[in-house]
Write a structure and sequence with these properties.
By secondary structure, this protein is of the alpha+beta class. It contains 5 helices and 13 strands. It has 2 domains: 127 residues; 108 residues, Orthogonal Bundle (Transferase(Phosphotransferase), domain 1).
Length: 243
C-alpha cells in the first residue's frame, strides 16, 4: 500500500504519492483544476450531479462528493456521523479500491480522499483515476445491440468479482462500465466490502436485473430483452463452474 495521510484543520486527506505527488484541499473542488466538468449521461447515468471529470488529457481524474440517496437524502444531503477516520466512507472506499486494483480487478485506481469534520458529522470526497474510453452499461446498450457473447462476458466478469468476494452495494447498469475493448469495469464502491460467499451475490444480481428493467422503462427501444438477462446468467454460472 502506498498511502499517505496528512491531517488538515478539519479532518484529513489520504492519497497515493505515486499518482498525485502533492495534494491540497483545493484539489477537491472544481476551482482547484484547470479543467473541470460535471459528469452527465443519458438515461440518468449522470447520477446525482455530484461527480466531475477534472484535470487534462492524458491523465484525468474523477472527483466525487459523497451524497446521501433515498428518503434520508431528502433531509440530510451530504453529512455522515463521524466515528473515526478509518471508518469514514471515503477512506474505506479508497482502501478497498487500492486492494482491488492491486489484485488486477477492473476498478478505478484511487488517487486521493478527504473528510472534513463539522462537530459530530463529516462530509467526504474521493478522487480516482479516470478510466479511458468507458461508458455505462446503460449507455452502451442504448447505442449497441449486444449479442449473446457480449452478455455472457458481462456475466462472467461479474462472477470474477464475486469469486474474489467483492460486494458492491449498488451494482446497477450505471456503475457497471464497458471499455473500448468490451471489458467490464465496476465503479463507485461506497459501502462496498470484501465478504465470504453468501446470499449477497444473488441479491446484487437481482439489483442489476431491476436496474436494467427500470431503464428499459425509460427507453423501450433499448437493446435489452429478457433473453439477454438469461445470457448474462449463463456467463455468470459458467464462470462459477470453471472457477
Amino acid at each position: 500500500m502506498t498511502e499517505t495521510v496528512v491531517n488538515t484543520e478539519t479532518g484529513a486527506i489520504l492519497y497515493d504519492k505515486a499518482i498525485i505527488n502533492q495534494i491540497s484541499a483545493q484539489r477537491f473542488t472544481a476551482q482547484g483544476w484547470l479543467h473541470a466538468e460535471t459528469v452527465k449521461g443519458p438515461l440518468r447515468s449522470g447520477g446525482r450531479g455530484n461527480t466531475m471529470f477534472v484535470g487534462n488529457v492524458p491523465r484525468q481524474f474523477v472527483l466525487r462528493h459523497y451524497m446521501r440517496g433515498g428518503l434520508l437524502g431528502k433531509f440530510v444531503r451530504d453529512h455522515y456521523m463521524f466515528s473515526g477516520a478509518d471508518r469514514t466512507r471515503c477512506f474505506r472506499e479508497w482502501r478497498l479500491l487500492d486492494k482491488l486494483a492491486a489484485n488486477n480487478l477492473n476498478v478505478p485506481r484511487p488517487a486521493a480522499a478527504r473528510y472534513c469534520r463539522r462537530g459530530a458529522f463529516y462530509t467526504a470526497d474521493i478522487i480516482t483515476v479516470r478510466i479511458p474510453s468507458v461508458m455505462s452499461l446503460s449507455q452502451y446498450i442504448a447505442q449497441h445491440d449486444g449479442d449473446a457473447t457480449f452478455w455472457q462476458s458481462v456475466g462472467a466478469a461479474i462472477q470474477k468479482f464475486h469469486e474474489a468476494g467483492v460486494y458492491h452495494a449498488d451494482m446497477n447498469a450505471y456503475n457497471l462500465q464497458i471499455d473500448g475493448d468490451g471489458d467490464l469495469w465496476m465503479l463507485d464502491f461506497d459501502k462496498g466490502s470484501l465478504r465470504a460467499p453468501g446470499r449477497w451475490q444473488q441479491e446484487t444480481l437481482s439489483r442489476l436485473h431491476r436496474s436494467l428493467e427500470k431503464i428499459l422503462g425509460l427507453d423501450p427501444m433499448l437493446h435489452y430483452r429478457a433473453a439477454n438477462w438469461e445470457q448474462l446468467l449463463e456467463g455468470y454460472f459458467e464462470g462459477s463452474r470453471s472457477a
